[in-house]
Amino acid sequence: MLIGKRLREARKAHNLSAEQLGNMIGVTKAAVSLYENEKRNPKIETLIEIMYALGVSSDYLLGCLLYTSPSPRDSWASR
Length: 79
Hints:
Blueprint: H1 3-13, H2 18-25, H3 29-36, H4 44-54, H5 58-62, H6 72-77
């Protein structure tokens, strides 16, 4: 699974520390580290928070896309 690698790439692209992202999505920096090192998978609710915080789609995080794409929030806002 690519969640860890993609999560780390997206977090760094936004110049966020693991602690900052954790605060944004309601988890500890240790939890973010576990996700990035693929020791634990985020709950679906947390995955949604990650998508919104980093502006990426679930398809990107799950490895279904090779590039980032807008999050659902972005597509709703453009309507």
